[in-house]
Amino acid sequence: MRIIFKTDYMQDIRPWKDRYQLVLYLILLTVVAAAPWWLDEFYLGELTNVLIWAIAGLGLMVLTGHTGQVSLGHAAFLAFGCYANVALIEAGVPFLLAFPLAGILTGIAGVTVAIPALRLHGIYLAIFTMALSILMDDIIVLSEPITGGVAGKYVGGVEIFGHLVDRWGTPDQFFWLVLTVAVLVTLGYINLLRAPLGRSFIAVRDSEVSAQAMGIDIARTKMISFALSCAVTGWAGALMGLFAGAFNNETFSVLISIQLLMMIVIGGLGSIHGAFLGAIVIGFLPQFLSISKEYAGALFGGNTVAIPGLEFGIFGMILIAFILFEPMGIYGRWLKIRTWFELFPFYRKDMFKRQKSYLKTERLR
Amino acid sequence: MDNAQLLISGLANGCVYGLIALGFVLIYKATEAVNFAQGDFMMLGAFVTIGLTNTEYMGLPFWQALPISLGIMGALGYLLDRLIIRRLFGESQTAVVILTIALGFVIRFVAGLIWGHEPQTLQNPLAGKELRFGGLVLGLEDVAVIVVTILLTWGLYVFFNRSKLGLAMQGASQNQLAAYYMGVPVKRVQGFIWALAGIVAGIAGILFAAKGAVDPTTGLLGIKAFAAAVIGGFGSLPGALAGGLVVGVIEPFASRYIAAGYSQIAPYALLLAVLIFRPNGLFSQVRVKKV
């Protein structure tokens, strides 16, 4: 067990605990960045997909994990970012400018959504965002001149510093592009959580009344949270569009919204690790299922029929198990294991027990 | 005449939405949680009844199968509360929301495994009979749907506002600790209300399956029922029914009188509008408490 003696306040808010931890993460980053040399092309694509999902997860994590606003409609912002990016590129804006712009535009869209959503809390907000996600489908169809409607859009490679970066042509470069975005977003996120702004997010999540008493402007905090969250989600959507190559109104359905939310719950709400862990689960579950189906088929005679809804069914069961037994997600479980080793033999069963409170109605505020 | 026909079919549809919304509101009133799987419960109730009555499955007579399937649905609701929801006692609403969404996926998957993915209808004694009112053609199923819904809503309303248990439930949701002190068996009340919601979902499912075909994705109707519940304001039973009727009536009229691309938006646009301008619904019983 490493004991760190903190001697001043700046040490307490450093982005990493100590040099040891920093080195660990740098090694991890190096290994991942070198992925094109030790992974074949198929799995590199899978890893790229996982990273894109992780960026989207980070986007939702700001809002749901740290500000406590449940959103079941983030696929709408994924779609917005994706279409904004493609529309800008088609208008002749270079990718390096179009990509940030797409995120910023999505952020602005998020703020416009946040204005009515500020009056809602809890379940109403969830329903509101879900309806938004459903409406987005129709909106895309109706705004056909920009979005291509039902026929959808096709996007090829993009040009960065004269290099053509394409999902199929140059998977390595595309992977690095996604990785760069992921690292930048993560660094920004870590620093956000150190800043007063990020702390005010957490304060709003934990208790709005207390936050107000501490002098936090709740409406403003929620707005900024929506803006940041939607901007990051928009970038993830833009990358998703480039990754898929072709997309239409059904690509970003309400199911994707739900999948995103489930992903960060499985990973662990309120932690940066959670977004990545959840993305790994989401990314590799279909693979895992198909492999296990082959095994099962080999065992019980070759019956590898595709069962509709199987993926989501299994997914739902995993999620229920997590909410019942491990509300903090995979990252929470990892924390417990690590603590057990660090404190051996002093770990206690109820160390991470959450404080329970009696329900009081929200209807009579 | 044409409009009247649209109105009737809209009302019958709206009653089904209203019944699902009734399930939402029941649970919300008593436990402050929202069951996002209520629509899938309805689908399950329909399939359980189909499994009991249709000749290709068990082939029981309809009136025998009815209480059995409702009993099964009630038991399922109770078990769900006993085994899963009760463990979340005292945790945030978000946990219940995410859990019930996941549950919906599981129910859809299981129903697809057992009954297949083909749309099926319930064989019932009312099928194919018609009432004629001077040019208006009324399916007897539609009439049954409307009558049953109104009776059920009225019964539940009286139960909640007059009986001791119903009032206890509302108390339990408003302040759990105080309810405990007053001697309300909060846990038992929760189990009871989930069973009741299961039964209501079962009734909705039976009526829906009698009217039209059911397949495992039917549960997605629940989203429209959300619109109904929100329009009525979560927490008012007659409001839920009224909201359901509004949504049900708007749908056929929208598809009739609005351009094709825009018509299916109508219920959701209405939902967003209500949430933006009257977050507590049009008929809500919420009085803002000023301290």
From TrEMBL, chain A:
InterPro entries linked to this entry: ABC_transp_permease, LivM-like
Keywords: Cell membrane, Membrane, Transmembrane, Transmembrane helix
Principal cellular location given in the protein's record: membrane
Pfam families hit by this protein: BPD_transp_2 (PF02653)
Single GO molecular function: branched-chain amino acid transmembrane transporter activity
Protein topology in the membrane: Multi-pass membrane protein
Any GO CC annotation of this UniProt entry: plasma membrane
Transmembrane intervals: 20-38, 44-63, 70-89, 95-115, 122-142, 174-192, 224-246, 252-285, 297-325
Localization per record: Cell membrane
Name the record gives this protein: Branched-chain amino acid ABC transporter permease
